[in-house]
Design brief:
single chain, 619 residues, mainly alpha, 3-stranded mixed β-sheet, 25 helices
Length: 619
């Protein structure tokens, strides 16, 4: 739908050492490009909606029948659209706590892709016939969110076509789908194991589609794809059986052994196929400026040119580097910042104590949040802090929150990876240095209090299915909130002004700012992976191995700028909201209202908190 035309018509005259290999999992992995959200509703349309809702004399005559028709059609369309999306992407359904399709696996056959495109276009035709101005304000926002999601999926399926270039696209449904069944006890172990068996049976079909679809992959996609599938193969063959070792049904275990052997064989065969595939020197991972801006607009609701975004990134990077240097000088003004930072990293928990230390941190964070009235903490059960299972040791720390649609009460899990007993003393020391006390604090803030865990609990109370569903969640709000909380907590006095804790927070901010720059430059300005690696090393003060991992991630996760863009947008919204509320402003009320809106694009949050707002998202 052309919303600009709609506005005009209405007004009439108006989304390697252990230390080097450190991969900090910031919440769950971000979803694939074709399943995320939203574009920005034009300011003019929002103002029109608000005027219509509040005016005693509407801008145009609204008939009761049209309103009733829209009110009836839209909820039906929402339900049918989400069901269709979930059926085609079972892993996304499970992420939301919907398990109807747990025994299924994504289908990327040419027939399935064509059917998905046709289904999306049919939904587009239907939603265009529902006038958004005839809907309640909340549904009007959801109308635009769904419209944008449809555009985002078509952009991926018809324009960018990662499924033709990136083998990793076929790895995620297998690894994520199986991991979710192992992680959450949404059903008894026997029932979940039956679903895993059925899912494993479909792995050969999925990988046959991968062979048929992927042509001329760039070298970096081949490299990352091989590595990803090798990790999944190890998980399927070695770790998944351990997760279901408690199942006593021998017949079921026998079926599981057979399905695992077949799935493992298919994955192993595909790895060999990739190893024998020759990278195309003329093929590029870059999606180009036009696709990049469209991707941001449709998925995240960020309608800002890459040139403007880069200016913001340059400014913020320079400012944060200056803050990093000044904070280091507060610790020791006679030494260079990186030397000071190296000393800070040596202040870390002892081996074997990480789970206990993380638990202590959560207790301290809860106390601070309650005393300072940062946000209303949920009355639900606190997350379980536990060691990371062996089959997830690729993650240093991660937060696993049950989906908001779960029908049974499931505990959230904050998982911490301690040292591997098989490592040498030197390896243990290097690893522990990478999760020093300051950065363990920011990790606990980001993942749990008041980050993703609190965000996830608020989500359960959201009435809008659109703003509750994980498949539609914009990373700029989900990750933006968690990244925002790292700085906000310290700004509010957490740590009592300890410069070491601030330095840890700034180091994490520099990492996200480098992602901001590299993602844009790799996809719109010809930056190579080697150049991206050097950028992370020079500007994020990282070692070469983790810097290369980050630069490679940018090739297949081009919009990983969402952490910083989301944080900046929330900071600006908070300032604008405070200016509007004046003496009535409280941080707790702002945070509660923000989280209560659900996983909406940030332009929606601005309109809900500041009705009729004409301000910029970031500047």
């Amino acid at each position: 739908m052309d919303y600009y035309k709609l506005v005009r018509a209405a007004l009439r005259g108006r989304p390697s050492s252990p230390r080097d290999l450190r991969l900090r999992t910031e919440g769950r992995p971000r979803r694939g490009a074709h399943t995320r959200l939203a574009t920005r509703l034009t300011a003019g349309l929002v103002l029109t909606i608000l005027a219509v809702a509040s005016s005693a004399a509407p801008l145009f005559q609204k008939t009761e029948s049209k309103t009733e028709m829209a009110a009836a059609k839209f909820p039906k369309l929402v339900a049918e659209y989400l069901q269709d999306l979930h059926a085609r992407h079972p892993a996304l359904a499970a992420s939301s706590g919907i398990h109807t399709w747990d025994a299924q696996l994504e289908d990327y056959s040419p027939q399935a892709i064509a059917a998905e495109i046709a289904a999306i276009k049919a939904f587009q035709s239907r939603i265009e016939k529902i006038p958004p101005l005839e809907l309640p304000l909340s549904d009007t926002f959801d109308h635009q969110i769904l419209s944008s999601n449809m555009s985002a999926r078509l952009l991926e399926l018809e324009q960018i076509k990662n499924y033709e270039r990136n083998p990793q696209i076929y790895n995620e449904p297998i690894s994520t789908g199986l991991l979710q069944l192992a992680m959450f006890e949404s059903a008894p172990a026997e029932a979940r194991l039956r679903r895993i068996i059925e899912k494993e049976k479909l792995v050969p079909r999925l990988l046959d589609s991968a062979r048929d679809n992927v042509h001329k992959p760039p070298a970096v996609y081949l490299k990352v794809g091989i590595e990803s599938f090798q990790g999944t193969l190890s998980f399927v063959q070695n770790d998944l059986p351990k997760a279901f070792a408690s199942v006593k049904d021998q017949k079921l275990q026998s079926e599981f052994k057979k399905s695992t052997k077949n799935a493992g064989g298919a994955i192993s065969s595909y790895i060999k196929h990739l190893q024998q595939t020759k990278a195309d020197s003329d093929s590029t991972f870059a999606i180009g400026k036009q696709n990049y801006e469209a991707k941001l607009k449709f998925e995240e609701g960020i309608d800002i040119s890459v040139d403007k975004l880069l200016k913001i990134a340059d400014r913020e990077l320079a400012k944060t580097q200056d803050d990093f240097r000044k904070t280091a000088a507060r610790i020791d003004s006679k030494r260079d910042p990186l030397s000071v930072w190296a000393d800070v990293q040596r202040d870390h928990p002892k081996a074997g104590t990480l789970v206990q230390e993380a638990q202590k941190q959560l207790d301290a964070l809860v106390k601070f949040i309650e005393e300072k009235k940062i946000v209303t903490l949920p009355a639900s059960t606190a997350p379980v802090v536990a060691p990371t299972p062996d089959f997830m040791r690729w993650s240093t720390a991660s937060m696993w929150t049950p989906g908001p649609f779960e029908r049974v009460s499931l505990p959230a899990r904050y998982l911490i990876t301690d040292v591997d007993p098989k490592w040498t003393d030197k390896q243990k020391e290097e690893y522990l240095g990478s999760i020093n006390y300051p950065q363990l604090w920011t990790t606990s803030i980001h993942e749990v209090y008041p980050g993703h865990f609190v965000q996830g609990v608020f989500l359960k109370q959201v009435s809008s299915a659109v703003r509750k569903d994980a498949a539609l969640a914009p990373g700029s709000f989900v990750e933006g909130w968690a990244h925002y909380t790292e700085q906000m907590m310290i700004d509010e006095g957490f740590g009592n002004g300890d410069p070491k804790i601030r330095m840890g927070q700034l180091a994490d901010a520099l990492l996200r700012l480098c992602r901001f720059e590299v993602g844009i430059r790799e996809h719109t300005m010809g930056m190579t992976v080697d150049q991206g690696t050097r950028f992370f090393m020079d500007n994020g003060y990282m070692g070469e191995t983790p810097a290369r991992i980050e630069a490679e991630r940018g090739t297949f996760d081009p919009t990983y700028l969402v952490y910083t863009v989301g944080k900046l947008a929330i900071l600006k919204l908070r300032d604008d909201y405070k200016r509007e509320r004046k003496q009535e402003f409280t941080l707790q009320e702002f945070h509660d209202r923000l989280l209560s809106n659900g996983n909406a694009p940030l332009w929606v949050h601005r309109q809900v908190l500041l009705p009729g707002d004409k301000g910029k998202l970031i500047e």
